[in-house]
Design a protein that fits this description.
This protein is of the alpha/beta class. Helices cover 41% and strands 25% of the residues. 38% of the residues are buried.
Length: 254
Amino acid sequence: MPSFSATIITLNEAANIARTIRSLAMADEIVVVDSGSTDSTVEIARELGARVLHHDWEGYAAQKNFAAREAQHDWILSLDADEELNADAQAAVARWKTQEPRATGYRFARRARYLGRWILHSGWYPDYKLRLYDRHDGEWRGTYVHESAFVTGNVETLPGEILHYTCDSLDEHLQRIESYTDLAAREMSDRGARAGAVGMLLAPPWKFFHTYFLRLGVLDGYQGFLIARMAARYVRRKYQKARALQSRRAAPGN
């Protein structure tokens, strides 16, 4: 029967890490890879029985692949520090451990909590995520943002959900947008994608319409409206930053 290592990457996650670790009680080990926390993340993780390693930040996918390589077991269950397995998912993983695996990867639905509300539309749900995989057949990919796990072979869906605790305030969401759009703009620029004026003009309102109406964000109440507005802001800031990068690179002497 399969044993597995749970892996978590962290940086200043003292407010979240205990919840994540406690949802992984069925794991045969828990590996936390920290990239330099200055709060009590490391101490909390060790107190709860996790093996904590330090690894300088190399990017989301690289950190998660490092954690998988350092694990004792070939099967990896990867969670972010602001996530947890709900009771149904915990029970499903416990049942999975009692039989031979039928796939090389397993995914869960992920449900996000945003500004105090569980989001069930807006393109945020069910948001399936592959998180349990055999490291010999899988890896994390993604140079900048939106890293994902990929496997060769079959993928099955397990019952239960990953609960994702996202933003507690608009300020926090705005800060994340600024951070992620820095990376997204670099990705666009590096792959040669043009951030044209027409795209910057039309893409943000289309993103709002798509999220709020076509993805039924309107059913998520005020939070759904904010999600759509912030999605449009993300697109606008990404284009603005990509255009600025392109201008600097095209300037004489660069």
